[in-house]
Structures are given as C-alpha cells and as structure tokens.
Amino acid sequence: MSLKDVVIRPVPIRKLEESVVNRIAAGEIIHRPSNALKELIENSLDAGASSISIAVKDGGMKVLQIQDNGHGIRTEDLPIVCERFTTSKLREYEDLSTIQTYGFRGEALASISHVSHLSITTKQADSECAYKATYADGKLVPAKPGGSSAPEPCAGNNGTILTAEDLFYNIRSRKDALKNIRDEYTRIFEVASRYAIHNSGTAFTCRKLGAPKADLNTLHGASTITNIRQVFGAKISNSLVEIQHKDQELQAEFKGHVSSAAHEMHKSVFLLFINHRLVDHSPIKRAIESLYTSVLPKGSRPFVYLDLRIKPEDVDVNVHPTKREVRFLNEDIIIAQIIDCIHNKLLSTNNSREFALQSTLKKQPSSSLDNHDGDGQAYAASLRPSSTDKQSENIQPLFTNRNSNTSAPATTESGGIELSLSAGTDTAEAGPAPSPSREKSYAAPKANPRVEVRLTSIINLRKELQRRAHVELTQILSEHIFVGFVDDRRALIQYQTRLYMLDFCKLSYHLFYHRCLFDFMNYGRIILQPAPSIHDLAMIAASELGNENPEKAADDVLRRLSDNRELLAEYYNITISDTGTIDSLPMVVRDYSPDYDKLPLFLYNAANMVNWDDEQQFFKSFTNVLATLYVLEPPLSDDPQNTKDDYRLVVEHRILPSMKGSSFWAPESILVENALVQLVDLPDLYRIFERC
Ligand SMILES: Nc1ncnc2c1ncn2[C@@H]1O[C@H](COP(=O)(O)OP(=O)(O)OP(=O)(O)O)[C@@H](O)[C@H]1O
Ligand SMILES: [Mg+2]
Asked: Contact 119/100 with Cβ under 8 angstroms?
C-alpha cells in the first residue's frame, strides 16, 4: 500500500475533561513561581493588608508562602474560594470598567490549586479562631489521607496565610524547565520589592525559608524613595529626580522617580504601575528609553519608577491572562506628557551637571548643535504637539560630573563627537596660581553642593548658548594645547596637527558670558578692599560719557542698584552696603579679578543698560554687562613688570584652561570676529617640505 492510498480522516471532536481544561488554563496564568506570588500579593492588597510576609523555599518551587493581616476569607466561602470564576470582587461585566481591585476574574487561586498543593489558613477579625483548608484542583481535600476535607478550626492571627507547595508537581515539562532556583528567587524578589516600593502603606518582608534575615524588609509608612533606597541602594536612589504631572481634562496624573543624567547603570529598570497594577507597557517604555538614549552616557540605562493613574473607565485591564498588560485611552497624549515632564525635569536639574550633545561633526563640519537631535529626541519631539518649538525643546544630554580639566569630548561610534559642558564652578588647576595683587582679596568659590538653578529664564539663556555653539570650534578650544604668547592679546594654540592664533581678549567676552550663565549662583566672591563708593564711581563714568548732570546720574545709579541689592547679592554675590559702597563682586574664573578701572562703567551700565523689568531680559543684559566688565584688558606699557607677569600667568593658567575639558560652548561669532585663525596644518607643511 502506497502513502497515497492512506485516507486521512478527521479525528472525532471530544469535550476535554474539566481537569485538563483547568490545568491548561492554570498554565496560562501561572508560568512560574513569581506569577503565583504576584497574584497572591494582589489578593493580600485587595484584602487591605498593611503587612505582607513572603517565605520561599527552592525559588518558590518547593514552598511559596504569603501571610497577610488583611480582612481574611469568610469561613463559608472556603469551600468555593479555589473554584474557577469565583470572586468577591466583580458581579457584572460592566463592573470591570470601574474596577478598583487587582482581582476580578476569580481564577488565580483556582489556577494555583491546579498546579500545586495549596493550603489556606484564614481568620477574620471577628472570628474566634482561624480555619485551615487544603485544596487540590479547585476543591477542598483532606489535609491527610482518610481525614475530613472540611476546613479545620485552628489558632491563627487575623488575616490569611496561603501556602503553595510543590509547584508544577503535575506538569513535568514546566517543572523541568524551572530548575534554576536562584533565577526563580530573583524573580520573586523582584515582584515583591516592586510591590513594596509602590505600596508604601504596606510593610513587606521577603526571605528564604530558614534564612535568619529577610532580603526585603520595608516598613509600614516608609516613603517610596526610602523603599527604592532599600531595594536598589543609595547610589541609585540618590541619583533620582522626582516627577509629577496632572491633566485635569483627561483626569490622568502621574508621579514617580526617574534617573537624572548623573545616573550610570547598565541595565534599564522600569517599575511601571498603571492604576496600581505592575505592568509592561512597551510604548511607554520605548518612549522613555528613547528619551534617555540621548541623555545618558553611552551604555548607561535609565531607572524609572512611574505611578500612572487614569480614570478606571479609560483603562482596559482585561487584555492579558496575567494582567501584565493594560490598554488605556489617549495613550499618545499621556505618553507625550510623561516624556515632556521627564524632559523638563532633566533640563531644570541639569545645571548642576554636565551637558552634552551628540553631533556628527564629520558630516556637517560647521553646523551648529541644534541640528543634531538624537533619535531619542526626534522620537520625544514627535510625541509632542507639533506647535511647540522643537529647538527650544532640545534635550540637553547630560553627563556625570567629571573634572572639567581632564574630560575631553568623547568620540562617538558614529565618528562624531559629543560636546559636553561642565557647569561646575571654574576649577582650573593647571600650573602655578598667580599671586593675587595686594589690593585684591578672594574668597574661594562655593564648595559643593552647587546651588541648583531652576529659573526658566536662566535655563532658556543657557539653551540659547547651546543653540549658537559651534561644534568644531568648541572641540578645538576644549582640547587645545597652549603653545605660547604672541603678545598680550594673542597666543598660539595647537589642536591636533593645526596651529592657531587666538585673540584671547576678544574670546574672553564669550567665555565670561558663558561662565556667568553656567555658574549662576555658584560664583566665588571677590572682596573689594577698601570698598569703593558707587556714587563716586558712577560720577566718573557719567562725566566720561559726557552726561550733562553727572551728580544726578550718579544718584540714579546708586538708587537703582541699592533698590535691587538683595537680588544682586543673592544671584551675583554683588554686595552693596548701607553706606553705598560696593563690597564684593562675583569671581567667575578662579583667581581672576577684572580690571578695576572698568568698575565705573560697569556700575553705570548696570543701572542704565540693563532691562530691570523683564526677568529673562534682565538676566541677559546683566550677564552682558558683567561679561564686559571681566573682558581681559592687556596691561598698559607703563604698568610694572610684575603686573604684566601676573596677567600672563592668569591667562595661561586660569583663563585658557577654563575653556578646556568641555567647559565652554564656543559660539560661531568667535570665527566672525577673527578671534581664532588657523595658521598652519602639519600635512600642509609636509607638502611644502616635499617640494623643497
Ligand atoms: N489574601 C486574601 N485575603 C482575603 N481574601 C482573599 C485572599 N486571597 C483570596 N481571597 C478571596 O478569594 C477570592 C478568589 O481569589 P482569586 O485571586 O482566585 O480571585 P480574584 O482575586 O477575585 O480575581 P483574580 O483571579 O483576577 O485574581 C477573592 O475574590 C477574595 O475574595
Ligand atoms: Mg486575585
């Protein structure tokens, strides 16, 4: 008989035995011990427990036990509690749309009873004693062969103890696949600790049976961040920033703790809770990861704890057998809000760290930085309403605070460079410190912690600088090697094989403008002794400028500055005494103080050229006036030799190094002003020599 002769007939359809159906269904809900634990924790939380203790043997395969102090199970419900589709939490299908409990299907305990030996001891607060019941395949069974299957009264605390033993004893293939008990315990710990972090009103412990110490031990009422610290350690918890947002219209809100840019971790950690359910939500995860790709150093991954609450009617919780997934209305809008919120938070906290933007220098040699959105930024931007200004929304990727003198921009895989900016107070250390001249007195720049600046106006001005930065120029200045002075205005510097002439006096304006903004509220202090009179100085300036009534002009200057002296003291370390003297100035670059001959003009301009009415315009114009005060002025030819020596020492060891190590985003205008000119490139020289 050939194969062709075999007639393939349909096999008769039969109804599966209930036990088979139940075991298959159970397998969909309980894949491994950690799934069972999740269900049991949720039941305890639904029962209002304020304390949950978990004990585990052999990764939960041998014993998985959970004890809570919740409301317990009614004795009369014990016979049916492990049957499929029995629940105290849902009556009508419609109730699902407003469900406030984790459970609603009445399947979890049934599933566990189909794949393990399950026992429940439970006591309600008003019962005289506890009852213990044993289950197999959803039904009550005797605890010992030949005994009664009815729940037995026993001693016990209020609440419920559930013990699942020999998990998957009746599904060999599953049991064999779960041999790595360490791995299973890790997963159990992960589930327990995540619920512990999210439910700060409940104390959690998790331990291996027989172990003297619990691996997880959170306290009732401890804050979320305390719990995160307990589970993930201080290093991670200290690097987190808090986020919060509420959308009245959608009735959605979220809060959480997410990595700041200073965070370095090689594995992403997502604790994502939607209406208190621990879920995987790929679109949210992808969007956040994408955002962080452009923010964190290469290879570093984010930590995200997000507690998202949405109107229950807008959430579909019934989309996955293990409830690991949910769907909700207005996903795109809410995800965009999450991304925006994290993004803004990072922007507002980044001043205390370093900034960096990835760019592709080789492809676009002289383009400015704002053309170089990373993928993540593009994605984040695509989620935002299109009407927003993308440039101003550029994420400033942040790097951990490195020593600004030693960290050169890193080369990226793509062959581009990363530009980073140290926002730290200038700490140029190279070389001998110039001896301060006698009449100047310095106070050291503020030690850590830096003051964190949250003023949107300052952040916007910094972003403006970032947008105007020239990638190649920034890199040259960041990595240059000082060769020597040409004169008191110009120096030769080398970058790779090229030699440049730098007009450091012209450049110093940009540098000081930059430092004034980035070290805002973190300056050192230059104490003026003896403190000069503002009125006298303003009179000098007014006269020099040909003001018809210098006396009145000086009065105005003094009044204007005295009226704003609190602001000047707080933001700029500019102190004005009751007697009208100026006692101190900000020290913007260490050991460098401006030419005091410029003080009269500075005071005059501060009063007259600064817009005191609009916050952002004020900071912009005041920074401009301040930077102008600090601009390097070469010594006069009849100045004493030691003044000239000091000047060059300051330029070589303080001013020029403060541009290095990614501390300065150089604007394109430096090129326009011819402040940096390339003199020669080594390969060109070779060619000349070859011809000779
Ligand atoms: N720890 C507990 N304390 C008090 N009651 C409990 C506890 N665990 C389970 N129950 C009761 O047993 C019932 C069945 O639990 P089970 O987890 O099987 O279903 P559910 O929670 O209602 O729904 P789901 O299958 O979606 O979890 C619950 O509805 C609840 O009334
Ligand atoms: Mg349940």
From this structure: no
Query: Looking at the structure, do residues 493 and 535 belong to the same domain, yes or no?
Result: yes
Q: How far is the centre of ligand 1, averaged over its atoms, from the C-alpha of 45 (Å)?
A: 10
Mutational pocket test of ligand 1: of 45, 50, 87, the residue with most ligand atoms within 8 Å of the beta carbon: 87
Is 458 in the same domain as 525? yes
Question: Is there an atom of ligand 1 within 6 Å of 68 CB?
Answer: yes
Residue 2 lies in a domain: no
Q: Are residues 217 and 253 in the same domain?
A: no
Does the beta carbon of 167 lie inside 6 Å of ligand 1?
Answer: no
Highest mean pLDDT among 155-169, 467-481, 535-549: 155-169
70 C-beta closer than 6 A to ligand 1: yes
Whether residue 143 is found in the same domain as residue 243: no
Q: Is residue 683 part of a domain?
A: no
**Ligand 2 ion: residues within 5 Å (CB):** 43, 103, 108
The string of pLDDT tens digits covering residues 466-500 is 888 888 888 889 889 999 998 999 999 998 888 88
CA pair distance 194, 220, nearest whole angstrom: 15
Residue 642 confidence (pLDDT) above 90: no
Of 372, 366, 455, 445, nearest in space to 404 by CA = 445
Range of the domain at 300: 239-316+324-423
Q: Count how many domains the chain has.
A: 3
User: In terms of Cα–Cα distance, which of 570, 593, 573 is closest to 583?
Assistant: 573
597 part of a folded domain: yes
Q: Which own/partner contact pairs does 21-26 have at CB distance under 8 Å and 24+ positions apart? A: 22/84, 22/110, 22/111, 22/114, 22/137, 22/138, 23/114, 23/115, 23/170, 23/171, 25/84, 25/107, 25/111, 25/114, 26/110, 26/111, 26/112, 26/114, 26/115
Considering the chain, what percentage of its residues have pLDDT values greater than 70? Answer: 82
Using CA atoms, how far apart are residues 44 and 204, in angstroms rounded to an integer?
11
Tell me: the pLDDT tens digits for 564-587? 999 999 999 999 999 999 999 998
Are residues 146 and 112 located together in one domain of the fold? yes
Pocket test for ligand 1, best of 37, 39, 43 (most atoms within 8 A of CB): 43
Of 229, 262, 286, the one marking the end of a domain is 229
47 Cβ below 6 A of ligand 1: yes
Final residue in a domain of this structure, among 206, 229, 252: 229
Give yes or no: residues 192 and 303 share one domain: no
- Average pLDDT score, the chain: 81
- Measured from the CB, is residue 409 less than 6 Å from ligand 1? no
> Are 332 and 399 members of one domain?
yes
Q: How far is the CA of 599 from the centre of ligand 1 (A)?
A: 77
* pLDDT tens-digit series, residues 176-200: 889 899 999 999 999 999 999 999 8
Co-location of 217 and 362 in the same domain: no
Give the rounded percent of residues in the chain with a pLDDT score beyond 90: 46
pLDDT tens-digit series, residues 401-438: 223 332 222 323 333 333 333 333 333 333 343 333 33
Residue 610 maps to a domain: yes
